[in-house]
Specification:
The chain is α+β, with helices and mostly antiparallel strands. It contains five helices and five strands, in the order E-H-E-E-H-E-E-H-H-H. It has a five-stranded mixed beta sheet with strand order 4-1-3-2-5, sandwiched between helices. The structure holds flavin mononucleotide. InterPro entries: Acylphosphatase-like_dom_sf (IPR036046), BLUF_domain (IPR007024).
Length: about 180
Amino acid sequence: MSEQATVRLVYASRATFEPQKNANGIEPNVARILMQSRRNNARDRIGGVLHFGDGYFFQCLEGERGLVNKVYQRIGEDPRHEDVRLLQMEQVDERKFLDWSMKYVAIESQVQRLLDQYGLSAFRPYEFNKQMIHGLLQACVAAEDPSRAEIPDSPVANRPRQSGGGFFRRLLGRG
Ligand SMILES: Cc1cc2nc3c(=O)[nH]c(=O)nc-3n(C[C@H](O)[C@H](O)[C@H](O)COP(=O)(O)O)c2cc1C
């Protein structure tokens, strides 16, 4: 696999901080992580999604192999979480989160439905098999990002592509 190949990396970890209960906002530590991620990932042409639930992180990173490996190494050294475990690493032709430097998805809605479907009472991403990882990623693609209004977008991209994108994607055979 060359360093330029596009890869999708998925990992899970456990937060070392005690999540602060906010009425309807985003956990403040997670908000800071998102801000950093959006700034750096936009620069490195990395996209993905971060999910935080029940004290666990589930993150997908997509981009050039060399750059994804670099950010994953940085993330692994971050004291805000521990027990960082790689769940999946594969070369892909298409990115699922092309339009997001780092999308944020909360546990509610689609994710809860998925847990119900697999008979899981809590979010325990270490126990996810390939099928569940795929299911959760698809749920994340479909989910709304509640942080969009709250956390400033990166200057490059952290929003769904405007309607014109669909046309160009079809033109490029990606639609
Ligand atoms: C769960 C989690 C996810 C993170 N995701 C990213 C990410 O996608 N991109 C990123 O650059 N940093 C991410 N970080 C932060 C990095 O660990 C690190 O703090 C940051 O990249 C340092 O950037 P700076 O040198 O610009 O401050 C994440 C941290 C945690 C705990």
